[in-house]
Specification:
five-stranded parallel β-sheet; 13 strands; elongated; alpha/beta
Length: 246
């Protein structure tokens, strides 16, 4: 492995500097070229004004990774950015896969970031204090039948559940079906937190319950947190008890 050639895979969290790690900021500062989905680049544009920027559209992940690896292999200092954490539905995995396919042997440095589940949970209170599952409702890369099975098993296991990509303009039924599955195993009054654009300027937050959750705005920028059977509301915040004797 050529450790003189490094590709940073950077988690920028929600996008603001105050929610990024120092390691992530240092990696961006050290890089000559910043590559990423245009929406994510826009979140950090004030930090990377002096860099060469390569933006790419949604669904261009493979080519984006290939470009980043090739540039880094040619002795360029490159950072490819993901919102949240690059190891959670981010770019880290595909970078390793493309590097293997293209036989590019350089150091890949994955830098973690605040993922949407953590950001949303901090806003809602403490809903993920016990075992929980994160499930993406996007069926672009995962079969919908498998997603439904995972939702059911997580519901049966009484996990608190964090839903990523819950609804898009074309994919409107998945969140309804998910809610219906959950109602087979959870009480209608189970607390649900809905956070759009967590830790960003246009943040929106709602706390409701499983029965009423579909009455609130939900889209691809929204995280939906469904409590387990013990989750409760304390002073307007969602809390899932860890089980301490008080």
């Amino acid at each position: 492995m050529n450790k003189d050639r490094i590709l940073y895979v950077v988690g920028i969290g929600p996008g603001h500097m105050n929610n990024m790690t120092k390691e992530a900021i240092d990696a961006l500062e050290d890089s000559e070229i910043i590559i990423g989905y245009k929406t994510y680049i826009s979140l950090i544009e004030d930090m990377v004004k002096d860099k060469e920027i390569v933006e790419s559209p949604m669904k261009g992940e493979v080519e984006r990774c290939k470009m980043a690896l090739e540039l880094a292999n040619n002795s360029k200092k490159v950072a490819i950015v993901s919102s949240g954490d690059p190891g959670v539905y981010g770019m880290a995995g595909i970078i390793y896969e493309v590097a293997e396919r293209e036989n590019i042997d350089i150091e890949i440095k994955v830098i973690p970031g605040v993922t949407a589940a953590s950001a949303a949970a901090s806003i809602l209170g403490a809903p993920l204090m016990h075992d929980f599952a994160i499930i993406s409702l996007s069926d672009l890369l995962t079969d919908w039948e498998l997603i439904k099975r995972r939702v059911q098993l997580a519901a049966e296991g009484d996990f608190a559940i964090c839903l990523y990509n819950p609804k898009s303009k074309k994919r409107v039924e998945h969140i309804k079906i998910t809610r219906d599955i959950m109602l087979k195993f959870r009480a209608p009054e189970t607390p649900v937190g809905i956070v759009k654009n967590a830790k960003r300027d246009d943040e929106e937050v709602f706390i409701t319950n499983l029965k009423g959750m579909l009455d609130y705005p939900i889209d691809m920028f929204t995280v939906v947190l469904i409590g387990n059977s013990n989750t409760k509301i304390i002073n307007g915040k969602m809390v899932t008890p860890r089980g301490y004797n008080l």
